[in-house]
Amino acid sequence: METLEFQAEARQLLQLMVHSIYSNKDIFLRELISNASDALDKLRHAALVDGLEADTSDLHIELVVDADARTLTVRDNGIGMTREEVVQLIGTIAKSGTAELLRKLKESGADSRELIGQFGVGFYSTFMVADRVSLVTRKAGTHDATKWESDGTGTYTIDTVVGAEVGTTVTLHLRPADEQDALYDYTDEWKIRQIVKQYSDFIAFPIRMGDSVLNSMKALWARPRSEVSDEEYKEFYRHVSHDWNDPLEIIQMKAEGTFEYEALLFIPSRAPFDLFQRDGRRGLQLYVKRVFIADDSTELMPDYLRFVKGVVDAADLSLNISREILQQDRHIQMIRRRLVKKVLSTVKDLMTNDAEKYATFWREFGRAVKEGLLAGDDNQRAILDIASFATTVGAEPTTLADYVGRMKEGQDAIYFMTGESRAQVENSPHMEAFQAQGYEVLLLTDPVDEIWVDQITEYDGTKLQSIARGAVDLPTDTPAEPEKEQELTPLLTYLTEALGEHVKQVRLTHRLTTSPACLVSDADDMTPTLEKMYRAMGQQVPPVKRILELNPEHPLVTGLGSALADRADDPALKETAELLYGTALLAEGGDLADPARFAKLLADRLARTV
Ligand SMILES: Nc1ncnc2c1ncn2[C@@H]1O[C@H](COP(=O)(O)OP(=O)(O)OP(=O)(O)O)[C@@H](O)[C@H]1O
């Protein structure tokens, strides 16, 4: 026998369990049954697809209570675990981001129940009700079994045993009941029946206690919506999603005819912590005629809808279909297309009928959904229709349709600006004329925004126009004064030369009202934020020079123009040019290439004025 230590994160999580942050302790049984059900699914699948030799004739879960010994045993004849798997799966928390989440959990205190829902604490929840837990498991296709035991503190023991059946048996040595603390007597058969009915009725395998079967085993997705209670849906959602929170929306679908399938999908009410992690949990469960085929089937949902959870039950697929074939299967592709359309149209309905739910949806998942704008399929328009964006008009996000409805007379484009934060974009000099003349501008600050605006140039016939790229002419601009501007031509030539290292062109603009200058990207060039993003991803991108635009009304600009006419060879001119460029960069929140030099130039100049 060996004594091993729990991994640090696992120990922390266990401690939280022992000190029971869940007010509802009954759920430990749901977790154990859920694991058992998964193990049974896996065994059936392995027998079917991988040709594993195993007895799958009577897959079931068995519950045994012993009031005298104060134990509750949950046994399944599913796939089981090897010794390595026990150490790996039970002794550690493999999921990335968990340490981070645990830290948050500690800090937040009150909110911990919601947060912990994201772990799916699974097996460890047994320590809420038991002071000792033992697990004996034998993997199908192997001979020896493994016995694991722990009191949920720092260590566990592990041993090889012989003579066990294939499958897993978990025995809980129950703590004394304490109903005031919602710790019930889990050797009470009635209590067990009630918990199973409440949380695990839909489990597809019989859950037996003595001679009776405790669950109805009805596939929830196959039952008409009117017959299923909200509670049942919620429990099922928890089973498929491992999310503690209630779903935001339930979508049920049924297709008959040449290709039949049923689907029960859920839109969560919260983004999982791993939504933007590459190894995050994603995909739907796939069944064929009620038989579980695969978990995490990413073939059924595009990546940008990776947060959608649920089950698809297809009638006409082969039971032993492999992952590779799934990806190519015409039927699967067709189902996927329909599911996507349905999810998008459901969100659209929320938009019209339940603004609050829609707002929650977009806040939690909008950033992911916008990735769909890059997917190059025919759903671009549908995604734009359900998207909303921060705007200079009010604190609430707006849809593109609403924006278009508010456009000013003569305005022919949807104006937007991308950047790293709302504050940065809102205060950027590019915004001045738009603000002054009352034009609404969308504030796009998600990294993905930088990319899709490059590919999508219009919405419903109205052009999308960045206010920080290319030349912008506002319909209400005051007409230019050609003579005055002509006077500045030598200055433009001079500055283009003097700042050649930093900018590709210097020109006049009407977009500024108070600032002397700003920087804009050429219509086809990469924006500085995008440049930064590529660099952060480790890609080599050559620095892109931008265009310096000057406000012909600003005294600094006109003054510099006259100074150039009077004393073209004054070295101070070049320094002023550099300061002008530097302030334009700072004003938009950019980074100076040589901050020390800028600071010195500025300090010298200030010294001369005090
Ligand atoms: N009865 C069982 N039979 C076979 N493997 C099991 C069994 N119970 C647990 N496991 C394995 O141990 C892993 C960890 O289980 P645990 O309940 O802690 O988390 P989980 O089921 O992966 O996810 P969640 O934490 O969301 O419940 C499972 O993923 C599974 O591989």
UniProtKB/TrEMBL annotation:
ATP binds at residues 31, 35, 76, 81, 95-97, 118-123, 168, 323. The keyword Secreted does not apply. GO terms for cellular component: cytoplasm. One of its GO terms (molecular function) is ATP-dependent protein folding chaperone. CDD domains: HATPase_Hsp90-like. Signal peptide: none annotated. It is found in: Cytoplasm. Residues 533-610 are annotated as: C. Residues 24-178 form the Histidine kinase/HSP90-like ATPase domain. InterPro entries: HATPase_C_sf, HATPase_dom, Heat_shock_protein_90_CS, HSP90_C, Hsp90_fam, Hsp90_N, Ribosomal_Su5_D2-typ_SF. Belongs to the heat shock protein 90 family. NCBIfam families: PRK05218.1 (NF003555). Molecular chaperone. Has ATPase activity. This is Chaperone protein HtpG. The gene is htpG.
